[in-house]
Write a structure and sequence with these properties.
six-stranded mixed beta sheet, globular, 44% helix, 332 residues, five-stranded mixed beta sheet, alpha/beta, 11 strands
Length: 332
């Protein structure tokens, strides 16, 4: 009887251990471009595996290359992806919509960089002068970060009732297509709310100039990308979660320690044969460009989205949008 009791106790203990076991394989949805360089280094150097091993666990990482944020969102909600990097508006929207189920939150910020409103219309002196003569290329009308910036600007210029005033002037185009459209005035496109390196290329076009930036609209440097996951994953896999965060921190430290070497790494990993080392170094070494874990202006974006009804329940502070692991960092 005693042996049976011991065996039963061991079986119960083994069952409990199994139920608490963290998963052994994770998938990260990764997009393209120099803004995602920390994730690219994490993949190349096996940094997640390194920090997981230090925590006493083995993990296999799958880096899924995706074309846009909608694929990241779908992967997290379906459970086919565990981490991804998206814009601040996407984080705010997912946080609001998933409170009652998987609970999407931010793990950290990733990259801060400005978005540039490039125009070839010589009559534009400010955004206030936009009219039906203008067609502005943005990644997605109404919902992209660029579209949201235009809504924020319209609210400041014309009041809350008119915050969607500029929406009618926008068209959805991926950045490469938007650059070609701006170059050729395709479909009347004479403006593009661009990112690097498209902005740098567009500034070489005759008559092109920057009318404003996302930093102008938000009042300072702002997170363009944040890393997100679900509360479900966070709570069930605390060691893996911390290993991923530690890996991201290490990758950012590597970049910031030697940006010239980091730029070279980007060209090699991305197999980018069009850009030069000096061009990529110029992008990441710019004073307005930053790889950092600290969220910047994310809360201001969330407040705006609550104000105009894009979300129903805006956060009370920026920490509400992120897991506690980074709450002690300077953020806003």
């Amino acid at each position: 009887m005693r042996l049976k009791a011991i065996a039963a106790a061991l079986l119960i203990a083994a069952s409990a251990t199994t139920s608490r076991a963290e998963i052994s394989e994770i998938t990260i949805a990764q997009q393209f471009g120099v803004a995602f360089l920390p994730l690219m280094l994490m993949e190349r150097d096996g940094l997640v595996e390194k920090h997981a091993k230090a925590a006493g666990i083995e993990v296999k990482t799958n880096w899924q290359k995706v074309a846009g944020p909608s694929v990241v969102n779908d992967g997290l909600l379906s459970g086919t992806a565990h981490f991804g990097a998206v814009g601040a508006p996407s984080l705010v929207t997912l946080w609001s919509k998933t409170k009652g189920n998987v609970g999407v939150k931010g793990m950290s910020a990733l990259t801060s960089y400005p978005l540039y409103f490039v125009t070839r219309n010589p009559d534009l002196k400010s955004l206030k002068d936009l009219s039906g003569k203008d067609k502005i290329a943005v990644p997605s009308v109404k919902i992209s970060t660029q579209a949201l910036m235009l809504q924020m600007a319209a609210l400041d210029l014309f009041g809350q009732a008119n915050y969607q005033k500029f929406d009618e002037y926008t068209v959805s185009l991926a950045h490469p297509d938007a650059m070609v459209a701006l170059m050729n005035n395709t479909g009347g496109v004479n403006a593009h709310f661009a990112t690097s390196p498209f902005y740098e290329a567009e500034m070489k076009l005759p008559g092109a100039r920057v009318l404003t930036t996302s930093y102008d609209i938000l009042g300072g440097r702002a997170s363009a990308l944040v890393v997100i996951t679900t509360t479900k994953f966070h709570d069930a896999n605390p060691k893996l979660y911390r290993a991923f965060l530690a890996a991201e921190k290490e990758a950012i430290e590597i970049i910031n320690k030697d940006k010239k070497t980091a730029a070279k790494a980007y060209l090699e990993i991305a197999n980018d044969r069009k850009s030069t080392l000096e061009e990529i170094f110029g992008v990441i070494n710019d004073k307005d460009y930053a790889f950092t874990l600290s969220p910047e202006k994310v809360f201001k974006t969330a407040v705006f989205m609550g104000k105009v009804g894009t979300i129903k329940d805006p956060p009370a502070k920026w920490q509400d949008l992120f897991f506690p692991d980074i709450h002690d960092l300077p953020g806003d």
